[in-house]
Amino acid sequence: MSTASKIKPPFSLDGELAVITGGGSGLGLAIAQCFIAAGAHVVLVGRNEGKLRAAASQLGSAASYETADVTQLHLLKDLVERISAKHGAVSILVNNAGNHLKKPALETSDPEFANVVNTHVHAAFALSRHVAAGMVERRHGSILFTASMATMMGIPQVVAYSAAKAAHGGLVRALATEWSAYGVRVNAVAPGWIETDMNRGIFAADPERKRKILSRTPMQKFGSAEDIGWAAVYLCSPAAAFVTGAILPVDGGASIGF
């Protein structure tokens, strides 16, 4: 038998239980699809039960869902315990739930700013803390944040979102330094501009914005949701066993383009 044939498939998520917040649509759903293809069981978490039920049905028997509002911080410990009791120990967490506000900074109110930060930062940290307790005890786990181009560059009229996504960078690095010695890796994927139904509508109404984005993207195209899903599989798989504290841009080069 050759040495290569003895190596476990490096991108396999076989036996892993992945919790994905905001998993009922968009990038969360694409990540779920790719995780299942790699062998994981996924639990989708979100507020809209109808959307979650439809997504889990589409994904098949390897998917389940739990309805929860992740901004209700006092309920997150119960959420983790409920998922563990039904499905087993959580070994992957994807902090993907988020909201957005496009507004000039001078017109952004304190409650609007706090609403975005609460969802992206407070909720993601609280859920990570509850999940990581079991991961640290078992010496096995992977936590993934969905970062953004706003983590790495200034984007006008999204000050609250930019502040929240910049905070993700700090969370990834700080948590990785604390938990990696216990077998818990913490990373982020930073999507560039992805072709979605929502973005297609935005670009149709604002062709100049589309032109500007493509002009500064070296690959001269938009990404697909699956591009983010497969990058997430890599970061949560044995192939990335020595990768922690990293923010991986999946952006066609937009973050380094001119």
Provide key terms for this protein.
258 residues; alpha/beta; Rossmann fold; 15% strand
What is the CATH-assigned architecture? 3-Layer(aba) Sandwich
Q: Give the amount of beta strand, in percent.
A: 5-15%
Relevant CATH superfamily: NAD(P)-binding Rossmann-like Domain
* Arithmetic mean of pLDDT: 94
Summarize the helix and strand pattern as letters: HEHEHEHEHEHEHHHE
What structural class do you assign from the helix and strand content? alpha/beta
Poorly predicted spans: none
In short:
This protein is of the alpha/beta class. It contains nine helices and seven strands. A seven-stranded parallel sheet has the order 3-2-1-4-5-6-7, sandwiched between helices.
Give your account of this protein's structure.
This protein is α/β, with parallel strands linked by helices and 258 residues long. The chain has a single domain, classed as Rossmann fold. It has helices at 3-6, 26-37, 49-59, 76-87, 110-138, 159-179, 197-205, 207-215, 225-236, and strands spanning 17-21, 41-46, 63-67, 92-95, 141-146, 184-191, 247-250. It has a seven-stranded parallel beta sheet, with helices on both faces. Helix 2 crosses helix 9 (225-236), helix 5 runs parallel beside helix 6 (159-179) and helix 7 crosses helix 8 (207-215). The radius of gyration is 18 Å and the shape is globular. The chain starts with a helix and ends in an 8-residue tail after the last strand. The mean pLDDT is 94.
